[in-house]
Amino acid sequence: MKFIFLIPMLAVALHAGDEFSKGNDAFEAGDFSGAITNYQAQLETGLTSPALHFNLAHASYEAGQLGRSIFHYRRALALAPRDGGAKHNLGRVRDEVHNGTPPKAGFWRRLTGFFTINEWTLAASALLTLWWLWLAAINWNPQWRKRGAVVRPILGTVALVLAALAIVIWHLEVDQPWAVVAQKEVSVRYGPVGASPEQFKWFDGAELRVRNTHTANGAEWILAQDPTGRQGWLPVSAVLRPGG
Question: Do residues 224 and 234 touch, judged by C-beta distance below 8 A?
Answer without folding.
Answer: yes
